[in-house]
Amino acid sequence: RVIVPFGRGNRMVEGLVFEIREEQDEDRCKPVLTVLDAEPVVDEEGFRILEFLADHCFSSYYDGVRVLLPAGLFYDLKTTFVLEKKKEEETIFLSQKEQELLSLLMHTASQKEADQLFMGSSPFYATALSLEKKGLLKRQSLASRKVKDQMKKMVRLSENASSEDSSLTAKQREVVSILEQVGAAEEKEVAYFAGVTEAVVKTLLKKGVLTSFYKETYRLPKTTAEENAAFPVLTKEQDAVLRDLIQLYQKPDAAAALLYGVTGSGKTQVFIALIQHVIQSGKQALLLVPEISLTPQLLRRFRGLFGSQVAVLHSGLSMGERLDEYKRIRDGAASIVIGTRSSIFAPVKRLGLIIMDEEGESSYRSDRSPRYHARDVAKLRCGMHHALLLLASATPSVESYYAAKTGRYHLFTLENRYGKGELPKVYLVDMKNEEQQFHFDTFSRLLSQKLLETYQRGEQSILLLNRRGYSTFGICIDCGKEIQCPNCSVSLTYHKANGYLMCHYCGYTRRLEEPCGSCGSNHIRLMGTGTQKIEDLIHTRIPEARLLRMDTDAVYSRYAYEEKFSAFEAGEYDILVGTQMVAKGLNFPKVTLVGVLNGDQYLYSGDYRSGEKTFSLITQVVGRSGRFQKGGEAVIQTVSPDHSVIQAAAHQDYLSFYEEEMIMRKASLLPPFCDIAKLSFSGVKEEDVKRSAENLYQKLYRCFSSQKDIPIVLYPVTRPVIYRLNGKFRYRILLKCKNTKRFRALLRENIIEAFSQNKIKRCTVTVDLNGEID
């Protein structure tokens, strides 16, 4: 990485050198100001990943670098100016602004104070550039890394030092003797083991008997106590799957496999045994989980088994912790990496295995540039390392299961729960009947009864409602309009904790007492239910119950997930209320009841994956119940109890869901039978955005109409449901296609050409392949 002057103003920017070549016209060249790294930060594998992201995800190389490297490795750059020594008469022909800036600089107490004048969007910058041209100021470029390496002071013996030296006191000889044995140690450490004060060590440093130096130390992420875990004893079913996976791993070529197992079937035990085999063979393993909330339980267990060989990467770490974990992995000090989506880029050099747990989760797809899916990057990396990719889930994505059924992946199945656990007994409650019987309540009578009985038995319950806040929207009683965000086409959600109506997209807030923006009325009625309201309702029904709410409003600190889930696991709470973060992968022995408060939430959304999302969420959260010897129950509240997706989820029947879903997708020509490219346009002026989208649509129509060998379905310009977001209007174009290199090249060429011909004005265009259709 280098610092280079960029643009007309020679603004200092950080760049990445890809190649070095001769340039004939030296007048076109600018100097490289600084080389930032002693060694390249992107290796050959990294370059291949960057090329993949640029080609498949329509991203820039620099966007790729931003996900490949930890943020702490980047630099803060600033430009400052210092006075040049000039004769006073040379300042006569200066403008008033130039004279004012010179006067300010002459009277600053220090260079640090002078630097403050040029920070941010400084009004002095243009004036300083003018003074630089006149030779009165000199520009300086300063770069400092965002996170410094953590160092500790060490001591060791000087060249001729010896414990036999008669000039040393007894205490000093003891210090020297210990360092003869261990080589080097911290000042405090050597003083402790020698039984002396640090003053003795400092005296030896002054005498020259010892020398000091600094050694880098790593900031390890905080974690609760490691479990005293034993390696699992596998069932016959698990052992058979493990043996087959080991055979697949030992083959010389890369391979991909899907492990489908019912909830509670012990997929994690298989992961542990397979990872143990991989690291014993001298390779490294990556274990990906979809949610940050899943890492604490896994981390405790894996660190109990594998100790310091385990590294963790996720967004909850500080910049320093993430940087040091990155370096531990890069240097080979960690054999196992556990993390969320971005950990797929971990600098593992001896990669033997990648496991993606709950592989069908949408959180494995990035919703910002580069718009990659971790599964696609995993395939690329396994191919480069001849490694094994293991996808695993009780609710695998339709695309992955189809790939397994058609032979592109190897398929392995766990049909039974681990140990003596049985699948929970599931009750479907028709909320339409509840209302017809004048029971207008968030909780059905059955769920209320089961919740109380579970509490009285001293067992635990989980309630799922994937809507945070207190009330999900507010309506003006006088004019009947919803209270909407002025920046986004969504309703504001009421949060009782702070008394504000809030937008969950852009962060806009307003007081509940403020008048309606349409008619000025103060009569606002709150409607809908969020997790905060559920918390209040439970307190009124079971006042003694200890309640834990888990959503993004309740999780503030970096370690809140670990602390709160650990407290629930330890039995400090009776009822856990939460959003989807409580639905997957968590293992709580005392949970015998799960309640799904709104089973239809995703069922009728516009995305073609709505059925898949609904089935996955219900199946996963129901699977949290009765995972050990105690029997479990689940209550699913729905207004569509006869819907095939709800029925399949209630019976934990993935195969029947898959078969019906495939019929629908084949008839509608949806993935996995095709690919879908979404071109999104956004900008401040709606007419510019719409016109740009329509111009590109016409261009694409002409282009692909002439390419008879590229099958494609091009849909006209439409406006998404949330047509305004963060103050910008949105339009989109959808294409059903086959995701080939030629298709991507044609699409890229047409977009670039449209920009160059000024057909796309004052708006941005993004391309997302097989992403969500919002």
Could you characterize the architecture of this molecule?
This protein has 774 residues and is α/β, with parallel strands linked by helices. Helix content is 34%, strand content 21%. The protein contains 23 helices and 31 strands. The strands form 8 sheets. A 7-stranded parallel β-sheet has the order 11-12-10-13-14-9-15, sandwiched between helices. Strand 11, helix 12 (319-330) and strand 12 form a beta-alpha-beta unit. Helix 6 crosses helix 7 (187-194), helix 9 (236-250) runs parallel beside helix 10 (267-280) and helix 22 packs across helix 23. It is globular. The two termini are 38 Å apart. The model has no long low-confidence stretch (mean pLDDT 88).
Task: Write the SSE topology.
Blueprint: E1 2-6, E2 11-15, E3 34-35, H1 44-57, H2 61-68, E4 75-83, H3 96-106, H4 111-115, H5 125-133, E5 137-145, E6 151-157, H6 170-182, E7 184-186, H7 187-194, H8 198-207, E8 210-216, H9 236-250, E9 255-261, H10 267-280, E10 284-288, H11 295-306, E11 310-313, H12 319-330, E12 336-339, E13 351-357, H13 374-385, E14 388-393, H14 398-405, E15 410-414, E16 425-430, H15 431-436, H16 445-456, E17 460-464, E18 473-476, E19 493-495, E20 500-502, E21 509-511, E22 524-527, H17 531-541, E23 547-550, H18 560-569, E24 575-578, E25 591-596, H19 610-622, E26 633-638, H20 644-650, H21 654-668, E27 675-683, H22 686-705, E28 713-714, E29 724-725, E30 728-737, H23 741-756, E31 764-769
Parallel strand pairs: 9-14, 9-15, 10-12, 10-13, 11-12, 13-14, 16-26, 17-24, 17-25, 23-24, 25-26
Antiparallel strand pairs: 1-2, 1-3, 4-5, 6-7, 6-8, 18-22, 19-20, 20-21, 27-30, 27-31, 28-30, 29-30
